[in-house]
Amino acid sequence: MTGARQGGVSGTVKQIITEEGWVGFTRGVGPRVLHSACFSALGYFAFETARLAILNQYIRRKELTQQMQESGVDVGVAST
Q1: What integer pLDDT is reported at residue 3 of this predicted model?
Q2: CB–CB of 48/40 below 8 Å?
Q3: Could you tell me the mean pLDDT of each successive run of 10 residues in the chain, 80 residues long?
Q4: DSSP-assigned states of every residue in 4-29
Q5: Which UniProt keywords are given for this protein, alphabetically ordered (predicted)?
Q6: Which H helix or E strand runs over 65?
């Protein structure tokens, strides 16, 4: 904390590298990358699942509307 106040980010980085070396500077990167990868995968999965659910619902409604039109039923499309 004192390094951040005295020399900013670059001063803090220099202090860490001087005291602990590159190993100390990169400590904790592995778990952070793993966490970020899992979080990104969950977000992608949720987006794709929602997209497919909406697409399937749209296709079903479109097919139902076409079937009703072909059978001569008056289809009034209500905007919701």
Answers
A1: 46
A2: no
A3: 67 91 90 96 98 97 92 66
A4: HHHHHHHHHHHHHHHHHHHHHHTTTH
A5: Membrane, Transmembrane, Transport
A6: helix 29-70
